[in-house]
Amino acid sequence: MPTSPVRTAIFPVAGLGTRFLPATKATPKELLPVIDTPLIQYAIDEAREAGIERMIFVSHPSKSAIERYVRHDADLSRTLRLKGKNKIARSLESAALDEAEHDVVFVMQDEPLGLGHAVNCAAPHVLPGAVAVILPDDLIVGRKGCIKEMVDAYAKGEAGHMVASMEVEEEAVSSYGVLAPTRTEGRLIFASGMVEKPEPADAPSRHAVVGRYVLDGSIFADLDALTPGAGGEYQLTDAIAAGTRRIGLAGFAFSGRRFDCGSKQGMLAATLFMASLDPAYADVLSEFCAQPADMTEAA
């Protein structure tokens, strides 16, 4: 496994996925598939590519299915092989985390107290150095994984905290944290801070922050020092802002395409995009995209 300056990745997966109810009543949103691959698998594969050693999943007691999915299921593999389904067994074994190569840790966030609280739940288990935070419902597809790109850039030592950033339309800035840039060097957008969900007229830029972070280890001291904000939640952006004054902040303009799979529209867009890359779905796409659907035919 390649070495990495970032050895730990944190996956906050405790959210209840209310926007996808009733589908998420029994199935965690992180296990919802884009065609046939669950969102959590894309996130895991990103971390693997980046050379991450320890993967910490901050989950909820009601979402035990995630742990079952992440870990190797020897009984299922054996049953599939006995039935002659060796290809499927190999695929499942490849998707699961091999605990001979990666540390796998599950911790529980019993109450929805914000992203900052979720990240801080992982603090006792992180390895020394910077940590990656990966939000699985932000799907970023590219030739190189977003976290791999960020870890490579972070290794140059120019940023204390690094956040994934993309330019959005002016009218969309109020849905994001937005960087206040000071200068740009290549793909790095150095910033004096972030403004959370500004009105378009007040936004310092159109550089929006999305769900990938590489954070200096001091983030946990800043999280410990936070006081809760609206709704009693502890916000990761507040802890990043506190560290920015000491160690700096940079956005990273990743090369991939991002889909907000926390929304139904984003999930549909991701599914259509992935289907468009596979010739096996060409006939289906052409049939339903060439003309409006007629619901009377389905009645």
Question: What does this entry look like structurally?
Answer:
The radius of gyration is 20 Å and the shape is globular. Helix content is 32%, strand content 25%. It has eleven helices and 13 strands. With 299 residues, it is an alpha/beta fold. Helix 3 (74-82) runs antiparallel to helix 4 (86-95). It has helices at residues 39-49, 64-70, 74-82, 86-95, 115-121, 146-154, 219-224, 236-247, 264-276, 282-289, 295-298, and strands spanning 6-12, 33-34, 37-38, 54-59, 103-108, 130-134, 138-141, 161-167, 177-185, 188-196, 207-215, 249-253, 257-260. It has a single domain (6-282), classed as Alpha-Beta Complex (Spore Coat Polysaccharide Biosynthesis Protein SpsA, Chain A). A hairpin with a 2-residue loop joins strand 9 and strand 10. It has a five-stranded mixed β-barrel. Strands 2-3 form a two-stranded antiparallel sheet.
Task: Name the descriptors.
NTP_transferase_dom, 5-stranded mixed beta barrel, 13 strands, 32% helix, alpha/beta, transferase
Please count the helical segments. 11
Secondary structural class = alpha/beta
Q: Trace the largest sheet across and list its strands.
A: 8-11-9-10-12
Number of domains: 1
Query: What integer value in Å does the Rg equal?
Result: 20 Å
Through-space gap between termini: 54 Å
CATH class: Alpha Beta
Could you tell me the number of beta strands? 13
CATH architecture title? Alpha-Beta Complex
CATH topology, by name, is Spore Coat Polysaccharide Biosynthesis Protein SpsA, Chain A
For the largest beta-sheet, the strand count, sense and barrel status come to:
5 strands, mixed, barrel
Shape: globular
As residue ranges, the low-confidence spans are none
The named CATH superfamily: Spore Coat Polysaccharide Biosynthesis Protein SpsA, Chain A
Portion of residues in beta strands equals 25-35%
